[in-house]
Design a protein that fits this description.
- About 40% of the residues lie in helices and about 15% in strands.
- By secondary structure, it is α/β, with parallel strands linked by helices.
- It has 41 helices and 33 strands.
- The strands form 8 sheets. A 7-stranded mixed beta sheet has the order 30-29-28-31-27-32-33.
- The protein folds into 5 domains: about 325 residues, 3-Layer(aba) Sandwich (Rossmann fold); about 200 residues, Alpha Horseshoe (Serine Threonine Protein Phosphatase 5, Tetratricopeptide repeat); about 70 residues, Phosphorylase Kinase, domain 1, CATH 3.30.200; about 150 residues, Transferase(Phosphotransferase), domain 1 (Orthogonal Bundle), CATH 1.10.510; about 180 residues, Rossmann fold (3-Layer(aba) Sandwich), CATH 3.40.50.
- One of its GO terms (molecular function) is glycerone kinase activity.
- Keywords: ATP-binding, Kinase, Nucleotide-binding, Transferase.
- This is Dihydroxyacetone kinase.
Length: about 1150
Amino acid sequence: MGQGQTRAPLHHFVNEPNCQLEDAWDGFVWATPGLRLLQGFPDTKVMVRSDWTKDRVAIVAVGGAGHEPSDVGFMGRGLLTAVSCGDVFTPPTAASIVDAIAAVTGPAGCLLLSRNYLSHRLNCSIAVGIARTQGLSVMEVCVADDIAGKLSCCEESDVRQSRGIAGGALVTKVAGAAAEAGLSLEEVHREAQATADKVWTLGICFDSCSMPGRERSRMNANEMEIGLGIHGEPGLTRWEADITANELVNSVVQQLQRQLPPEGDICVLLNNLGAVPMLEMMVLCKALMISPIAPRIKLLIGPVSALTSLNTNGISISVCPLDALREERLCTPVACRHWAEPVRPQLVPKLEKTELAPRSSSPGVHSPPSHNNLAEVALRQMCRVILESVSELDKIESRVGNGNCGHNLGVAAQLLLEALNQKNLPLAHPGHLFWRLSEIFRASPGALPTLLGIYFSNVAEVLTDCNEWYRPAVVKALQYKIDVVHRIGHARPGMRSFLDALVPALESASEGADWAAVARAAARGAHATATMGGAVGRAAYVPEALRRGILDAGAVAVSLAISAMARPLMGRLGWDSFVSCTDDEVFWERFERGRLIGEGSFGKVYAAHTRDVWSFTDVVVKITEKQQEEAGAMEFLGCDILQQHLILLWLGVSKPNIVHMLEVCVSPERTYYVMESLSGPNLEEWLSSKTEIQERLVAILVKQMLSAVREIHAADMVHRDIKPENFVFANVASLELKLVDVVGTMCGVFDNARPQKLAGTPLYVPPEVLEHVFTKGRLDTQGIKAVTTKAVDMWAIGVTVFQMLSGKVPFEGSVQSKTRIGSSSSSGSPENRSEVAKLARAQSEPLSLDGSETWEFVSHEAKDFLRSLLRHEPEHRLCVDDALAHPWFAIDTGSDNPIQRNSHAACSSLRDFFSETGQTEHVVRKTLFLVRHGEAVHNIEEQAAKKVAQLQAEQLGLHPKSPECKAMMDAARRLVLNSQALGDAELSPAGKAQALATKVAVAALIRQGKVPEPTGLLISPLQRTLQTASIIFPNHPNAHVRDLLSEKKTQFPCDNRSKIRNSIRKTFVNMSFSHLERFDEQRLWFDSLEAEENNADVRERAATFVQQLRSIRDDCIALVSHKGFLRELERGPFGQPETSDAKKPGSEFGNCEVRVYDVTLAPRGVFATFRYGG
């Protein structure tokens, strides 16, 4: 280690913890003549006997290090021929096992011995299959002698075969002796299996093992554990440690006796697990020889360290019934220094190392390398996050297992990064890429990488013919092969495994959710593992009470991986630069600091200029000092690793009505938050200039504020400082509001969130929070979590709306304090306590919205909205979704009567408001017909498939509304939609009839003067919309086809439009396709993964369309489009709340339904008034 570098104390005789096994094996070979390491060590950890001539059945042991002398100490004549070993408590890879088998297997064959752990079984199964394909005769015996597994299982569905522990040493001896006697492979296997079926073991300890750089004990000094494993995992139960040696041995013997036949001789192995002094072992030996089974003991092996668990301060006792043949095998002399025989070990002379032939490549699909930028970035981000989380994942798993989950996945991530750097992955072909991922993960140590490798290979088989990244197909393949994990790994959702994060994420993805929602679903599933009763793998042997509250490391890893990949899939390809470490000088070399915008108790905000942050030039930089971190930063540091990644993911993507966070830079002394620059005033400044304001304008602004709060609440967070000062107009000529302070006070409201402190501005803080603010002159933190709910933000919205409508605070006698709760200045001064007390008293008074000139002109709906928010009981306040659906936003509040406010300027109407900037001439008004197409052919096929699936579900006894039935119907629907025969589906006969009926209804409305006649016609480019438009508006002289109006891009064939062919031109001869052809020439991204859209993408397209309306000369335009586009147009730019009432705007469009809007395009916003629907 270089000068000036430091490292944590190891407390072990090692050089580097990661090289412990390599150093140990080198030393063992120096001290043990007759053994050799295979070529390729240390990457291939295989040791073989150098005197082996392949004339008998070879005995190969498989296991991890840390159990010495087992297994390498048992190599020699009459015992083991070779050992394939992994790192400490980690099984070898399948490739290493195959190397060992190939090195020693001759015509007589090979017997593979392993201990019963999932990772051992998986890798041995793979290795045996590969060896047999190469013409080698191989059989396997898996030892499962731990009776703790039997004692802990009470239901058949929960039974997992017992672990393999020290009793495997007796199986090794019998197998070795049988092979040495010249028996055939089948006979050797029969004797070894018979012994494995009859040997039983129980372990006890006073202290668990330790590894370099890790904490040692999980136990108290006055405790001991019964029924422990050999990898440091907790035991079956704990006893008080005041028991004597005789009592202890008698208790163990009583459990073992229940497994033995009532009569007959037995062999007993008294095994030291690593750290018990020999003096104490001899005491235990005496206790054994005076125990109830003493008269039956014919063979005693020990006290001896046969199979250890590093330095565990404990023992195990193994028993095995004897017959004449087994007794002969156990007593046969062996040439092995470390086997406790009644004879002296015989040293084997050194022989030359056996050179092995190169192993053939593993089976699988190998396609040439190909490139897909999005896939590469997603995989790199996943690897980066996993490598950064190795220590945290190991720490999580060490509480219920061996603590190697992070290390094992880190190996896989490193191998994957190397493959990416070598550019030899088929990134453009999903099926071939999953094959390569399978090979990489199976070459990594541990159960989880191996199981993932097997899972990926099965997914690859499903995707063999998938030649492009089509999200529904990939998700469906991943879902379809989940059963492989259960069949091989015995894991189901709800049993603490990686499936608990993967399955909900896949369900969310299959429903079309955006990637942030998919990541949240994975995180919720991972968090749920802390409270799950069932378990699989090594955690299954840990009592439920001991693992409760502990996350499953595999589920955490999968959640982190999905979160990491979500970032580039959402368009943040440059995510590495979002959160970075820097120093102050380097930061300001990239930014030119401008004027000071604001200053508070937690830091300063500056205007700045940069050239290297995305596409922005002007930015805003918020600077906070480490010594005075804001409440939001403190809450972030208090979150677990999953929550932190979700918060960063949320911060790094753009959201409606929330300022875009571009970058977070952390220096030793400060944190820099780089945000987009907004040039408009904040809402407080803007309101202070108004003495009159129209209620409709207030509703428009409040709806945007609620939109921002909805984004926060959807991510399971709460802002805690909603107020007019924190909302800023995007620019001076816009009505678009954005919430700007998104890091100062926010905290999570996850199930396991633990808010550290209160936050907010007293005037906007609800009563339940004020009760916890000051107690005896200091901040009272009791009950913080109970009062930190989403209802806090809804109260603040209510206070803000009250101010907007009336120009004053909602509670008489309250003081508009700028002091924020949680700041250093709010630590309980008498002035602040007095101020809060006044506010609390004011809040306790009934809210009055009558008796003044101000409220005389406010609508009943607005008053009801306020009362629904300013309720003292948080559970009775409107949630954000209910607030957005409130009738106040659905009525026309644009009367000519302005609301009088207590301020000092004038703005008497919406029209006056627009004219303040002298831009009235830029106000544009349009009438828009929104028309959905008629029923299409694929709709009929889809409904028929769902009906058949429902009938099949009912025949299986499933309720029509059950999740299983819905899943069957959805699968049937997707199967139909994936049919190439339905590509760009046309109208059905019923759809054409619907269009004809709509044509008659529209003509009648125009004739009656209820709506004007459309002079312009814009149409989506799919067949069903083109046909609908040609029927309702036949031979329209001004019809144009625009891709902007397309259905949400799902990549289902029915939603993929046909290429512009002459046949289409001849069919729709009056329509102009020129704009569409120009678009196609530039549409380079059409076949990429980014082609798939979510609802937010469609809403963005709808907003773009509204902006383009200004350049269209026609005053009345008909749009013929799809349900998804029209829905997002209504609920987005038009501001209609979502509703299930089919008679109201904001509901889903029916077939050939028409809705008419009067739209005002003003410099400061878009205002749409619903005119007709039917």
